[in-house]
Structures are given as structure tokens and as C-alpha cells.
Predict the structure.
Amino acid sequence: MNIAIFASGEGSNAAVIMKTFGSFIKKETASLAVVISNNEKAGVLNIAADHNIPCEIVLLKNKTDAQQTEAYFKLLEKYKIEFIVLAGYLKKLPKEITNAYFKKIINIHPALLPAYGGAGMYGKFVHKAVISAGETQSGITVHYVDEVYDHGQIIFQVKCAVEKNDTAEDLAQKILGLEHKFYTEILAKTILSQIPVK
Ligand code: GRF
């Protein structure tokens, strides 16, 4: 099964996936075929190059919705992609893609969905909102992706405490640590659960 990683930025989750995926799944079963980004300056592109994984930039600017969808499909077909993992991908995928890849796209969100999700809830905005609301717990959510932001079926969650004096930065650190600890394993388990036993 060929897998694509979609990422827009730093790529610390993508880096962990590239480093450890092979320890969860044999490469004959599933392999990381391409990293796709909407951002040609994304740090994740250098990380992919270090792992000898091809990179592609999906050019979305000045394109109609239909042209954007076509650009995505073109890349997904080029690499015969059957499963997509979003790792800090900031663009909403067209519904034609989320429909074609129903239960074949997963995302990680730095909060306990369905709370603190949706448009505008990314990065430090999530942690600031959690702290301002006086929450005593936050965490991570791995979920399938559908056409609504942060909405698809939840696959996995793990909680962490929000301490009284935690800043948004403290919470971000804690949560990123959890993401790195769990995302690759959950990705691998999700893929393996979908492969029929021979
Ligand atoms: C992570 O916090 C993840 O929850 C969110 O985007 C961030 C990506 O960080 N979807 P990185 O690029 O993997 O460092």
C-alpha cells in the first residue's frame, strides 16, 4: 500500500513517521511513497529528502476548486496512493478527495475533539483557547478526515493534564510530545486493520 504524507510546515510529526514507520510495518506491506506539500518552503521537504522520499508541491494558487482537485488527483495517481496521512497540513482537502479516500485519510489534532476543532483552531490558537476556558485536561485526537474540518470519526485519543500555570507554549510542548509518541503507531495500526489477512 502506497502512503502519502501531506504536510505544510515544520514537519516534526512527519519526521517521526519517516523515521519509525518501518519498525511498525514491513515495507512490502506499506511504504511512504511521497510527501506532498502546498508550501514550497516547508521544512518537511528537507526531512523527506534526507529519507529519500520524493516530494511534490501541489500548486493551488490562482486555481479554481476543480483545478485544485485535479492537481491533487494527478499526484495521488502518479504515486498510486491508497492512504493519506495528514501531518500539519493546513489546507482543507476538496470533498472529491475526502469522498474518494473515505476512511483512507487520517489527521492528528492537538486537542480532544470534538472540542477545540474547526476552522481557525490550529497551532497555538488551540492551546490558548483551552487555557482561556480553564480546562484541566487536553490531549490529542487521531481521526479520519471527511469534508468538514476536524470532524471525521475519532480513532484514538489520549489526555494530558493542563496545569494551573501552563502557558500555551508549555501545553504545545506537552502535546507535541504525545503526538510524536503515538501518531506513527496509530497510523500503522489503522492501515494494518484495513489490510485483509491472506
Ligand atoms: C501538530 O500539532 C498537529 O496536531 C497539527 O499540526 C501540527 C503539526 O506540527 N495537525 P508538525 O509540523 O508536525 O511539527
Notes: The beta strands are 2-6, 31-37, 55-57, 81-86, 105-109, 137-144, 154-161.
